Amino acid sequence: MQAPFQLNSTQNTQWALWLALTAFTSFASAQQVCLHSPDLPNLEKSLTDGQIQVKALDSQINQNTLAKFSGMVEIDSNLAKIKADQAVFDRTTHTLQASGDVSFANEYIAVSSESVQLNRASQALKINQTQYSLNAIQGHGTAKTIEISKEAGINLVDSSFSICPKDNQVWHIEASNIKLTENQSRGVVKHARFYVRDVPLMYLPYFSFPVNDERQTGILFPEIKNNTATGLSFEQPVYFNLAPNYDLTVSPRVMAKRGLQLKTEFRYLTPSQGGQVNIEYLANDTELADNDSRYFYRFVHSGQITDNWQFDVDLNGLSDDNYIADLGSDYYNRADTHLYKTIGLSYYSEKLSVNARLRDFEVLGESADSYRALPEVRLNYLTQTGLGVEFEVDSELAYFETQSDDDPTATRIHLAPTIRYPYQNQWSEFVAEATVFHTQYYQDNLIGSALEKNVTRTIGQAKVYGTLNFERQLHVFGSSLTQTLEPKVQYLYTSFEDQSNIGLYDTTRLFTNFSGLFRGQEFTGLDRINDNNQVTLGVTTRMIDENNREQVKLSLGQIFYLSDSRINDIETDNNRSALAAELDWQLSSKWYAHGEAQVQTSTDKVERSSLSLEYQLSKNKILQLNHRYVRNLSGEQIDQFGVTASWPLANKWQWVGRWYQDREKHRTVESYTGVQYQSCCWTMSLVAQRHLTNRFEQNGLQNVDEFESGIQVYFTSRDLLKEGLFGYRRPYLLN
After folding, report:
1. Which end of the chain is more exposed for a tag (fewer CB within 10 A), N or C?
2. Are 312 and 302 in contact, with CB atoms under 8 Å apart?
3. Which pTM was predicted?
4. In the chain, what's the furthest Cα-to-Cα distance?
5. What residue ranges in 469-530 does DSSP mark as E strands?
6. Omega prior to 648 cis, within 30 of 0
7. Helix, coil or strand: residue 279
8. What are the respective helix, strand and coil percentages of the chain, to the nearest 5?
9. Residues forming a β-bridge with 540
10. What is the DSSP string of 687-706?
């Protein structure tokens, strides 16, 4: 029969065990691991800190010297459990020796060994011929000796480590020595060999690794690509943890066709400021006839000056129009034609907001030159005047110019006071408002232009908007649903003033969808304010289930013009706008649909439409069909069809594919496919892609017939669905 025996221990044993467990757990936490639910040891929680209980079949106790135990020895504390064939406590040397079939376990780690030696006087622990496994994560290994002391820390002699399953150990590390020291953020490994299966692939005489969750300097996973633009390329990021609040990543990139590129990313963060600086440089691009050097820079900053004041910067620039098309970018895509350069200062309070900024652009190719706002200051003031009436003032001061010496320049001063009465309850909403738009233009450089130097424009606007919300209960196929009916009506009147003597500085025509019907404005910016005398009618109906989730949402709307607009840019012979429709439909628990269309009712022709149909069985089982159509976009017709799919091929294998077809030009715009293997101990993705290059020719026009093909290899987990030109997006979002 086992006999219990209790001793009071010092904190030395507890420290040694704690250091061992912390080091092992921290080392594994730096790896890519899989959580699992191990069989944790049944620790003796009835014991107090420092108290040890010993059970054995036989015991010999000398009060002053030795305590010997044999036969199914169990040494318990509230921190750990040790089992052995024999154990000896030597009171004179303050040592504990356990031998035979020894096992040590706590909630973090389990160790089996031939012997354990604990010296309470020197606070040292030595475990011989060990096999260990981590309980919180899937990490395990062996060691000839594990030595732990307060002065030297942890030393693993002739050890191995892997996070792969024991029955399928794809890779492991062997080392002559692994050392971890208390209060140090990195461990040291000497004479390390990296094995895949049983084949040695790499030898490092020395390297260090993080032993906690702090950011650490080190080498990140490389990125390998091979495409027609760069040839075979290899990029190796190196991360530098310079301080707790700033760091640097340097990524040398070797490209067979173009040479050596250096990419850098510097990040910083303070309690009130934060930002990032990116610099990319390629010296002597060997693919170019003149071997020019190429560069890209980006500086983003956001800072809180006081509780009310904020400062923002977004500056971007590059060496040439084709930098993004040739070398790629993490921040812009091949379809972009403008890079932002903005510096802003903002003030916010309960009633007043002020935004001042300098707005410039880097224009790529022969894209239309955009006007720079140097500066642009906007002020908004909103207050309650009593009886539910609001008074709001929008104002703006801006100066516009371009890089061309031949384009007009302008200073614009705008003031728009508004009186508004809003009312809302559970079943209705009503808004009545009146606004005066007063704008003063001072225009220069008008040679050969029909514009006027000084223009004063004053326009009045009145709007009345109302909506109701009706509900009824339905029983469909045994399900209880709530159907809503939400009619909307708006009357809008805006006076006319000839604006042909004003230049277009920040103004373009807007597309109109259902929500845009009630906008009342056909243009962005302030250079054109269209006259209106119109009624807008719309209706939305929803089907809501018992869990208050929308199953169906359908919206229809149209504008009825009581008089024709006299603004030249929007003259039309129709007395009504296109009929705008939107549909969101959860067809079943797995099928979703979203559709939008604008149909010209006078001709029954579709002006714009988009349709998405998605089947989602689970997070990684997706099939999505997309189609979009625009009858006239800058003189071209857009008619594209796309398929996106993601499906598991086998356990740990995932496939993603995408294909977009231009039905107008009868060609594929993008084809994309990738496979990813992801397990507890390693991940790899292989992606192949073919898409339009969108490169600019020497005349500045974009090439719409040249394609780029390539493959990429990643060693980190990627969301392959979101990669590529188009990427994956949910077809709609119900609230």
Report:
1. N
2. yes
3. 0.76
4. 113
5. 470-476, 479-494
6. no
7. strand
8. 5, 60, 35
9. 486, 555
10. EEEEEE---B-TTSPBPSS-
